[in-house]
Every structure is written in C-alpha cells, then in structure tokens.
Amino acid sequence: MERLQKVMAHAGIASRRKCEEIISQGRVTVNGQTVTELGFKVKQSDKIEVDQVPIYLEEPRYFLFYKPRNVISAVSDDKGRPVVLDYFKHIDQRIYPIGRLDFDTTGLLLLTNDGEFANQLMHPRYQVDKVYVAKLDKILDKEALRKLERGIIIDGKKTSKARAKVLDTNLEKKMSVVQLTIHEGWNHQVKKMFEAVGAHVVKLKREKFGPLNLGKMQPGEYRELLPNEVTELKNL
User: Fold this and answer.
1) First-last CA distance in the chain
2) How high is the pLDDT of residue 45?
3) Domain count of the chain?
4) Which of 141, 121, 117, 139 is nearest to 130 (CA)?
5) pTM of structure
6) Which is the catalytic residue, given 51, 77, 102, 104?
7) Which of 62, 122, 173, 184 sits CB 3.0–4.6 Å from 225 for a disulfide?
8) What are phi and psi of 36, to 5 degrees?
C-alpha cells in the first residue's frame, strides 16, 4: 500500500506537493469514489482517476543516456527533428528526460518514468552537481575563472557558486577547454555564463550528473541505472 499522492507523483502527474493540492481539490477518484484525504493509501489493483482520466502504474525505470549532438531533449518534436526517445523505441514504459541539454550539447542525460524522482532531481534546493566541459574561443584568465566561481548575473538572476578549472589551452588558436561545475540547470546557463566573461562556447558536453559519469559510453548509447545508483541519487 502506498500513499495516493506518492503514487500520483510517481505516475508523472505532478510533484508530490502539487498532487496533494489536486487531491484536496476533489479532483481524484479511487475506484469511483472521490478522495480528499491526503493520507489515503492505495494498492496496485485500485483504479485511480485524475479529472476523470485514469493513471497507469508502471514499473519504475531509470536510464543514463549519452545524448549525441543535434538531438532534442524531448519526447517528440513538431518539426520532425531527432529526439532522445528515438533511441528508446523498444522501451515499453513512458519515459521522459529529466531536465534538458541544448540541441547542440552532448553528454549525460537521465530519463525515467518516475515523476517524483524527476521532480526531486530538478528542484533547485537539492543542488546536484552538474559537470560540463566546454571548448571556448578564448583563453580565460584567473579573474574570469573567479567571476564564474563567485556567481554570474544572467537573465537578472545570479548563479550559485561554481567551480571552474582550465583543462587545456591552445595559445596559437587562442582557445581553451574549461571544466565548469554548477548546481542549477537554467536555459542555456553554461553558455550564458561563459558569454558573461567574454567567451563563446564552441563545443559543450555534460560529463557528470551527481555521482554518475559517462564512463566508456559512446554518443547514442544508454544503460539502465543500478539500484544503488538510484538510491544514491535519491539520497542527494
């Protein structure tokens, strides 16, 4: 038996707190009866409907995917461009990406059908480390690195403290490779942070998400997370 709001969140309806609001509003029925009690527990065989639409309970699945360049971090695209779910066509569960990577950004992307898990990882208060490696059209000096680490104002908001490290420089081409570790996941955040210190991102890859890394995977490959990896992410 599980609490109704937890089951709804797992099914991808909304965050657990939002699901509690939906229950309190009398929009949920269990076996045809309206339920407004937040502590109400349900079993696998119960028929749950939200706004008269049934929800389906699936076995939770968790995947680590190496997103290739020029692929949309979405389940579909109205312009017919490649999306990450094109690589998961034989997976029966209705999985979706946790957050997003830009169209031209490569690297580690998580996918799941566990709505509560996804909402927790995307919530800013958990501050999960995300490690990016960027090829830049400029060699960053120490002051630029310090600015990145102190936080940058982008779109009227200041980023949290970051970690920045130069991995390689090419004096002849005046280019560098910089590793940047951030906690948020704002739209185009990494590119905008580097733009704020006068650098343009030529290539961008996310190499780590929390304790997870790509290992020896190649673009387009994926693997299912191990139970201990899922537990470690939940404990973050």
Assistant:
1) 25
2) 84
3) 3
4) 121
5) 0.81
6) 102
7) 62
8) -120, 0
Indicate if 227 and 163 belong to the same structural domain. Answer: no
- Residue closest to 129 by CA, chosen among 102, 96, 173, 162: 162
CB-side neighbour CA atoms (13 Å) of 51: 3
Q: Taking a C-beta distance cutoff of 8 angstroms, is the pair 153, 192 a contact?
A: no
Q: Are residues 6 and 116 in the same domain?
A: no
Q: Are residues 182 and 113 in the same domain?
A: no
Quick one: 73 exposed, middle or buried, by C-beta within 10 A (0-12, 13-18, 19+)? buried
Instruction: For the beta carbon of residue 122, count every other beta carbon within 10 angstroms.
Output: 15
78 is catalytic: no
Q: What is the mean pLDDT of each run of 10 residues along the chain (236 residues)?
A: 86 85 96 93 90 84 97 92 95 90 97 87 82 97 96 94 96 96 93 97 97 97 96 88
By residue count, the chain amounts to 236
Domain limits at 19?
2-54
What Rg value do the Cα atoms of the chain yield, rounded?
21
CATH number, domain of 23, equals 3.10.290.10
Are residues 180 and 205 located together in one domain of the fold?
yes
Cα-Cα-Cα-Cα dihedral sign, residues 169, 175, 177, 179: positive
Q: What is the CATH number of the domain that holds 185?
A: 3.30.70.1560
Q: Mind giving me the DSSP string for 164-221? A: EEEEEEETTTTEEEEEEEES---TTHHHHHHHHTT--EEEEEEEEETTEE-TT--TT-
Q: What is the pLDDT of residue 55?
A: 85
Q: Hey, what are 94's tokens?
A: 């209705």
User: What does the pLDDT read at residue 57?
Assistant: 72
